[in-house]
Amino acid sequence: MKLSAAIAVALISPCLPATAQQGGAALYAQRCAQCHDSSNTDIRAPSRTALQSKSFDEVLGAITTGAMASFAQGLTNDERAAIASLVTGKTASQASADSAGQCAQGEAGFPQPIDGPRWNGWGADLSNSRFQPAAMAGLAPDQVPRLRLKWAFGFPDTSVAFAQPTVIGGLLFVGGGDRKVHALDAKTGCTRWVFPTDAPVRAAISFAPMKNGQSAIFFGDVLANVYAVNATTGALIWKSKVENHPAARITGAPTFYSGVVYLGVSSIEEATGSRPTYQCCTFRGSVVALKAETGAQIWKTYSISEAPHPTRTNAIGTQLFGPAGASVWSAPTIDVERQALYVATSNSYADPATDTSDAILALDLATGRMLWHQQATPKDSFVVACFGTDQSNCPQDRGPDHDFGQSPILVTLHDGQRELVIGQKSGVVHALDPDHEGKILWQTRIGQGGPLGGTEWGSAADQDRIYVANSDVRFLRDGSRRLSSSEGGGLFGLDLATGKIEMQVAPVACGDRPQCSPALSAAVTLIPGVVFSGGVSGFLRAYATDDARLLWEIDTARDYTTVNGVPARGGAMDGPGSVVVDGMLYVNSGYAQWGGLPGNVLLAFEVGTP
């Protein structure tokens, strides 16, 4: 049985001796420094400064059972603890906040009807539109300027708040880096129940009533486990491991439709495969269909049909493999009319590059058979080693790392034309025809693009426009890995029929604000007349869709008193977007990766009195 991070913490002395600290420095230099101490701003491992913002438990979990476990393979518990203590300057946390902020005893079931105002999963609907209709939003444009903080919830022992909440029937469900899923009262923030997970949950949660009368929530963790949990009690219904590759993870929300849970599988082999002694690369992205009642697999389709095979050896003689990659980072989109499913894929990891990477794939809902695919960027083979000092495992035909990090949005225009619209890290927004095998209808550039550039986590669309935020994160050119405070950003509204830019918001520079970038990496959210966009700066802003005027802004990067008693602070906004339900707005703040401000808070806003 694998040793969990929690058990490992309990076995480790909270005060490590100086000899252990010295050992931690040596182990760090051997196992970690190549990426974390690099001055190359394109390496996506957190800098040493960013690691200092994390908790001891967070780093220990990452190198024990989490994303970085392969780098710590063969180390003892004390050696892992020494590394965690060295890079964070902290020791094991003894505090627990699970008992704080509990709802009153006797509260059970849903406070409100489940068919009332809600935001389910990543995109609020099967089309992943991230558009909340007026009846569900309960928030009019003239009320937005009066939004004020109602409550804040702190995630303990973590420096990121990277899982978007779901709101159903007056309950809010959210995962996080603290290896727990929390069920909160959406109006007050008090805790109904807490469910422990094997690894952090960074995906949004999806809800569905099941045939047996239970109401369930579905979610995945970064060890590629998928869970079904009773929505009102927090009891486990089933758990399923959908991919055994050690680098596999779930980063996109599951999508429920007609008794089946569909989800994509991604990985971090792009990073772990960069060591010259690693036989890179053997992971293939996939889409999995599971029975909602039991978790049993119905079908699994790999994004690359050909299994990886030996290709060449690198400079030190390590056997390399390919093809690999084409991860599915985001939630699947369901096309009820065509009984199809659409996903977007990442870059390839190895030679030879595949034509299903950086692509939109269409699969048959019943069988998983691939119906068609449309590639946006050919020959995009890339691993993190391509930006390092040792490029032994970098593909020979290296690409620009322009994958898709967001879900395709299925829209129907006023004239009946259907489109799949999506933004890409290349800085290009694409419109495809789902009824003619993904034929390209238009393409519009809104950013320069890059490994952290273009459009990142999510766009939003109604029947008229797609709203796209531009990241284009840039760093100072002094090798410090500090964010540029003047480069990146911009918000755009594109006409769905033509791709023409009809609404535009200029980047908002940071001035002298530390660890700040004008980049807009977080997912965009849309309600009638208003578009919300969170920035790496920590600001959340709301703009009128008719003339791009600023309606409201809030600086989330500050300290908060929380309903659960956890010390909390906001920071960079990256990944999840706002969720608007029944007159309230919910948003996470804090993202310590890439030099951004750390944070660990979920914020809930309501409309104040005039």
Describe the 3D structure.
With 610 residues, the protein is mostly beta strands. The protein has 8 helices and 37 strands. The protein folds into 2 domains: 5-88, no CATH class; 134-607, Quinoprotein alcohol dehydrogenase-like superfamily (Methanol Dehydrogenase, Chain A). Strand 21 (409-412) and strand 22 form a beta hairpin. The strands form 10 sheets. Strands 10, 11, 12, 13 and 14 form a 5-stranded antiparallel sheet that branches. Residues 1-17 have low confidence and may be disordered.
Explain the layout of strands and helices:
Layout: H1 5-11, H2 18-31, H3 33-36, H4 48-52, H5 56-64, H6 77-88, H7 134-137, E1 147-154, E2 166-168, E3 171-174, E4 180-185, E5 191-196, E6 206-209, E7 215-220, E8 225-230, E9 236-241, E10 248-249, E11 255-257, E12 260-267, H8 269-272, E13 286-291, E14 297-302, E15 309-313, E16 319-322, E17 333-335, E18 340-344, E19 359-364, E20 370-375, E21 409-412, E22 418-423, E23 428-433, E24 439-445, E25 460-461, E26 465-469, E27 491-495, E28 501-505, E29 525-527, E30 530-534, E31 539-544, E32 550-555, E33 559-560, E34 568-569, E35 579-581, E36 584-589, E37 601-607
Antiparallel strand pairs: 1-37, 2-3, 3-4, 4-5, 6-7, 7-8, 8-9, 10-12, 11-12, 12-13, 13-14, 15-16, 17-18, 18-19, 19-20, 21-22, 22-23, 23-24, 25-26, 26-27, 27-28, 29-30, 30-31, 31-32, 33-34, 35-36, 36-37
Helix pairs in contact: 1-5, 2-6, 5-6
